[in-house]
């Protein structure tokens, strides 16, 4: 289980970017997020194992199957998110966390606070999304 973040500290744009305090803050935030996702995943597995009863009513069975499919799809997205969290933790250890993969510039504290797994600055992300739209429309 991850250590709890000190609730008083909030990174700001005024301090040195990715100083030791910020790295610790984001690492703890990522670890807590990952722990939360893993706990939800464990709960889903337990729930699916317990709820294996066959529904006699066709509509109830269809509804249960739909619910199960949605839950599994959600967990698959969370599995991918856990992978991105692990990648962000690796970048913290390597010293590259918080810097844009495209430009090498700081991503910014506000963006990392909102999306701690971000790998692109806001500007680079917007360029990336514009290129995707152009190619998708072709």
List keywords for this structure.
single chain, 138 residues, mainly alpha, Four Helix Bundle (Hemerythrin (Met), subunit A), 2 domains, flat
Name given to the CATH homologous superfamily of the largest domain: DksA, coiled-coil domain
Tally of contiguous helical segments: 4
Structural class: mainly alpha
- Low-pLDDT regions: none
CATH class of the largest domain: Mainly Alpha
CATH topology of the largest domain: Four Helix Bundle (Hemerythrin (Met), subunit A)
Number of strands: 0
The N- to C-terminal Cα distance equals: 47 Å
Order of helices and strands: HHHH
Q: Estimate the global geometry from the Cα principal axes.
A: flat
What is the typical, i.e. mean, pLDDT? 87
What would CATH call the architecture of the largest domain? Up-down Bundle
Task: Indicate how many domains the architecture comprises.
Answer: 2
Any idea what the radius of gyration is? 20 Å
Main beta sheet strand tally, sense and closure: none
Helical coverage, percent range: 55-70%
Overview of this protein structure:
The protein is mostly helical. The chain folds into two domains: 17-97, Four Helix Bundle (Hemerythrin (Met), subunit A), CATH 1.20.120; 100-138, no CATH class. Helices cover 65% and strands 0% of the residues. The chain has four helices and no strands. It has helices at residues 20-50, 58-94, 109-114, 122-137. 13% of the residues are buried. The model has no long low-confidence stretch (mean pLDDT 87).
């Amino acid at each position: 289980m991850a250590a709890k973040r000190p609730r008083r500290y909030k990174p700001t744009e005024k301090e040195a970017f990715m100083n030791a305090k910020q790295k610790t803050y984001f690492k703890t935030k990522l670890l807590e997020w990952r722990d939360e996702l893993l706990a939800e995943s464990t709960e889903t597995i337990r729930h699916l194992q317990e709820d294996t009863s066959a529904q006699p009513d066709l509509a109830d069975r269809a509804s249960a199957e739909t619910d199960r499919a949605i839950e599994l799809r959600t967990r698959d997205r969370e599995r991918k998110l856990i992978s991105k969290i692990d990648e962000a933790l690796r970048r913290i250890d390597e010293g590259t966390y918080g810097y844009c993969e495209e430009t090498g510039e700081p991503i910014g504290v506000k963006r990392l606070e909102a999306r701690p797994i971000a790998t692109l600055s806001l500007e680079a992300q917007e360029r990336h999304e514009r290129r995707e739209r152009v190619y998708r429309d072709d």
